[in-house]
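Hello Y.,

Per our agreement to keep a running log of every chain we model this quarter, I'm adding this entry. I've kept the format consistent with earlier entries: sequence first, then predicted structure.
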Amino acid sequence: MIQLEQRIFALDRLGEFLRNINPNDSNYDSLFEVINRAKNVNGWFSSKNVLYAFSQWGDCLNTKNLTKWTNSYTFLKKPPKTVGLVLAGNIPLVGFHDVVSVLVSGHKALIKCSSSDPLLIPFLIKKIQEFEPSFVKSVEFTKDRFKNLRRYNCNRK
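Predicted structure for the entry above:
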């Protein structure tokens, strides 16, 4: 399992990437390509709106914020569980908080993206995995129905 500090560091690096978006920097060519593809899939995803969503996540994903957030919780050293996430697609990156919550907690995310937003979150996951290759084992995407996942009541003690 990836240590909490490594998870925070990788998310901070993603935040840094998103805070420094520059159309003149070739490191961002793939980001602008995915924005254009997302706009073709969902006409509501204007470049301006998608860049705004990336910018907001860039501001949130920094070591200070992530440490403050995670200090509120106790992460038990138990084997990670697989958490199924069915993500909405009505707003760019609307389901990304769910993904970040699963990853920062040390669990595995099984993600079913909305057909209205099938590109943006996989792009961000690929970036996180570039920054911390151990995350490759922590995320899986599916287009199928979830099978063999147990339901848990999050409010149960």
